[in-house]
Amino acid sequence: MSDERDEEMKMTTIAVCGLGQMGLPVAGRVAAAFDVLAFDITAERRALAAERDRITTTEALVDLAACDIIVLSLPNPAVSRQVVRELAGRVAPGTVVVETSTVLPADVREWATILEPAGALVIDAAVLSGVGQMESGQATLLVGGASAHIDRVAAVLDAMGGAGWKRYGELGAGMAAKVVNNGVAHAVMVVLAEAFAMARAEGVALADIADMLERSDGGLMRPLTHRMMERVANGSFEGGMPLDAARKDSTLALAMAQRSGVPLFATQAAQSVYDLAAARGLGRRDYAAIATLWEEWTGQSLAYEAEGGR
Question: Which pTM was predicted?
Answer without folding.
Answer: 0.90
